[in-house]
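lol forgot to send this yesterday, sorry. struct tokens for the thing we talked abt
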């Protein structure tokens, strides 16, 4: 679908922006299915960073209505650093990010979802890390997951910290917490940016970047609190999710990123996830989380 010509962009990029090294952009999206209060909490967590951004690109994925529309328009009116990109129809998160990323004015870009909560110093820590490690192109962080209330933490998601371990894990699992990611815009665009691979747009991007030689790292600190619904685990094993995952693992095998064993194990795992009873799946999921608590990844040097 050719939608880009009808996209309405406020204050777009006009050539390179000369800015201090501490400047960064935020790429955030909202669509009709989001909750107004959750969106406000998420955006407030970005506006109140210890190192604030002067460039928050907000992609509005299709028409909004009701409280959500009122809330979004109020934040745009009250915060000139929030620049909306309006899409006439809903085209999906990967597509709006693909169009929105080139509009970011700064080289370092933070990803923000519309219902999560960033730690107040998230931007400061990720920005400092990328400045101190010029060889790293993508940095992520540990995240926490909560249900209903931000203090009702139900899980902590650890991921590998060092580049080689991240690449090794990527053969089978997504090694990056996308919600906690900051990256160098030029590197992501050079690798082709976000592309259309439903439910795996970020993982698809990471694999392409790894094959192109870009480097990854993780900050060993929980820098974002991710909101999940009570049925999140069930949605992760829905039929469309499993079908997409199988397609993705076959693609990794096709391009030579994963070997036959990796692909067979992951497809078998996804099929088993779909078939096992819910109580067993939940028990395995929690056991995996407890194991990672006892066996954390080593620190980045």
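and heres what i got for the seq, position by position
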């Amino acid at each position: 679908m050719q939608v880009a010509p009808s996209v309405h962009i406020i204050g777009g990029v006009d050539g390179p922006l000369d800015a201090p090294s501490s400047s960064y952009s935020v790429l955030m999206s909202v669509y009709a299915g989001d909750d107004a209060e959750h969106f406000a909490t998420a955006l407030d967590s970005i506006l109140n960073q210890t190192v604030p951004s002067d460039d928050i690109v907000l992609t509005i994925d299709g028409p909004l209505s009701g409280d959500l529309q009122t809330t979004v328009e109020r934040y745009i009116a009250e915060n000139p650093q929030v620049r909306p990109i309006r899409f006439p129809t809903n085209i999906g998160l990967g597509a709006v990010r693909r169009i929105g990323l080139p509009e970011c004015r700064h080289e370092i870009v933070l990803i923000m979802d519309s219902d999560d909560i960033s730690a107040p110093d998230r931007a400061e820590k990720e920005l400092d890390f990328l400045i101190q490690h010029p060889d790293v192109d993508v940095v992520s962080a540990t995240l926490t997951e909560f249900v209903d209330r931000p203090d009702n933490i139900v899980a902590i998601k650890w991921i590998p910290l060092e580049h080689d371990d991240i690449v090794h894990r990527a053969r089978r699992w997504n090694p990056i917490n996308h919600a906690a990611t900051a990256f160098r815009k030029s590197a992501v665009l050079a690798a082709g940016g976000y592309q259309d691979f439903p439910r795996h747009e970020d993982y698809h991007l990471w694999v392409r970047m790894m094959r192109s030689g870009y480097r990854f790292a993780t900050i060993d600190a929980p820098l974002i609190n991710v909101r999940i619904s009570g049925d999140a685990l069930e949605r992760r094993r829905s039929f469309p999710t499993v079908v997409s995952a199988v397609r993705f693992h076959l693609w990794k095998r096709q391009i030579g990123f994963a070997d036959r064993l990796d692909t067979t194990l992951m497809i078998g795992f996804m099929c088993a996830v779909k078939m096992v009873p819910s109580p067993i799946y939940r028990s395995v999921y929690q056991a995996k989380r407890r194991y990672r608590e006892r066996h954390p990844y080593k620190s980045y040097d």
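The chain has two domains: 6-13+23-228, 231-292. anyway ping me if u want another try
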